[in-house]
Each structure stands twice: as C-alpha cells, then as structure tokens.
Write a sequence for this structure.
C-alpha cells in the first residue's frame, strides 16, 4: 500500500513524519513529485558559562523527559560549559530524581512508559555502551518492561552512539566543552539538524549560534521543542526536507504559486 501511495501518478505531493531510513526510502521511490519530510533530530541544549543554571537545568529536565523523551525535538544532548558543568549536573540529577515516573494511567506521574519494551531495552543498551566507554551513570537506566527511568549520564564524549545517533527516549547525556567554538563543533557533528536550545544572555554568543548552528531552529533560553504555530518549523541535513508547520510556510508547501498579469495600466 505504501509503495502505491508514493508512486501513484495521481499523487502530487507526499508528506511524511518519521524516521530517517523510511524518509530516505520514500525519497528514493517518489520520483518527480514534491515531498515534505520531517525526520529525526538530535537536538542539543547548550549551556554557556553565563547561564542561569537553575533555569537551564529545569529546561534540560523538562525537555528531556516530557512525552518520555519520545519527541523529535526533545533534548537529546546537553552540552555544558566546563566552568558550570558540576553545578549543572548536580541540579539535573536532583530534578531528575524528583521526576515521578510510573503507571501512565496514574495522573500523579510526570512520565509513563516508552512506546514498547524493545525501545526501553534499546535505551538501556545505549547507556550501558556509553558507560563501558567511560561515561558516568549518575541516576536511572532502570527498566521494567516498557517503563524506563529518567536517566542522567555525565562525561559523555561526542563520538559515543548515545549522542552520535538519535536516542529517542528519556536519557540526559551530558557533554562538557571548553568554549563556544567547541560547543558549535560538537553540536554540528552529527547527521541531524532539526532544532536547538541555547542558555546564555550574551548577544555575541547568540549571534554566533544563530549564524553557525546547522539546525532549522535556535531557541534562546528555551528548549529545542519551543515554537509558535505561526513560525516555520523544519530541519536540514538528515532531519528532513521542507516545512509543513508554521501557517505561512505550510500553505506554501501544500499549494502551487500562480503568477498572473493584467493588461490595464
């Protein structure tokens, strides 16, 4: 059925939200027709040395665990300046421990299960792999069926699969950096380019992040998932093609432009 939908001569446009592999398959089969693809993300929250650490840690925790971390714009990497990293980590751990997780039908819970048990097992495996390579597990990585605990991992290196690839669950991997050049280099060092959040009040930093981060959105003192319905939303690199969110851009994506002229002066 799917192949027929994306190759049928009567289909003018294909829109898809999902994983990179399927998105690229659709692109390879679709041929000469328009596509709007919203694919994966590996969204960083970057915390500079001048950041309000209480605010930054709250953004980090909410951005990482909301919807059990199963959002394309969830915080999937926490890049933290080494000057404030210890304080940031301490606060993230404390706020993670306070994040209530359990039965998703219990309204007192902050977080329920992930999509299924294999997904929870995958997150557990990713964290175990990072720890085996020298990362420090500070809290979590506990699994019961599809219930996976909010997890904090410190001293993560950019080349570890936990952060090199998209980890689509409630994991908070913390990468420490020395300066803004390294932060930008690490942020851009994956195949993805969907969104980002930066915690700083310095306009020179903000200007560089807006100019140099390879993403579709840069949110200052907000999570990568922050957006308004009026604003365009989409990614670059392996995070997708085109824009189907944001009213004006969505209209452009789903309609044809026609130019006409009239003969009267």
């Amino acid at each position: 059925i799917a192949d027929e939908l994306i190759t049928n001569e009567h289909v003018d446009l294909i829109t898809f939200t999902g994983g990179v592999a399927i998105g690229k398959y659709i692109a390879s089969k679709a041929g000469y027709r328009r596509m709007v693809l919203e694919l994966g993300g590996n969204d960083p929250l970057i915390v500079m040395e001048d950041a309000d650490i209480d605010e930054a840690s709250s953004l980090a925790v909410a951005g990482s665990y909301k919807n059990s971390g199963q959002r394309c714009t969830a915080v999937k990497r926490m890049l933290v300046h080494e000057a404030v990293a210890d304080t940031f980590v301490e606060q993230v751990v404390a706020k993670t421990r306070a994040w209530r997780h359990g039965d998703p039908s219990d309204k007192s819970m902050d977080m329920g299960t992930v999509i299924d048990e294999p997904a929870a097992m995958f997150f557990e495996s990713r964290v175990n792999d990072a720890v085996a390579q020298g990362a420090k597990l500070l809290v979590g990585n506990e699994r019961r069926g599809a219930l996976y605990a909010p997890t904090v991992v410190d001293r993560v290196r950019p080349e570890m699969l936990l952060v090199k690839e998209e980890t689509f669950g409630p994991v908070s991997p913390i990468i420490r950096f020395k300066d803004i050049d390294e932060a930008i280099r690490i942020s851009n060092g994956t195949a993805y380019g969907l969104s980002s959040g930066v915690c700083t009040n310095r306009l020179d930093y903000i200007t560089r992040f807006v100019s140099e981060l390879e993403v579709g959105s840069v949110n200052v003192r907000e999570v990568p998932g922050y957006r308004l319905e009026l604003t365009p939303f989409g990614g670059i690199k392996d995070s997708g093609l085109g824009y189907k969110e944001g009213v004006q851009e969505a209209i452009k994506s789903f309609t044809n432009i026609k130019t006409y002229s009239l003969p009267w002066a």
Notes: The mean pLDDT is 97. The first strand starts at residue 13 and ends at 17. Residues 44-220 form a domain with the Aldehyde Dehydrogenase; Chain A, domain 2 fold (CATH 3.40.309.10).
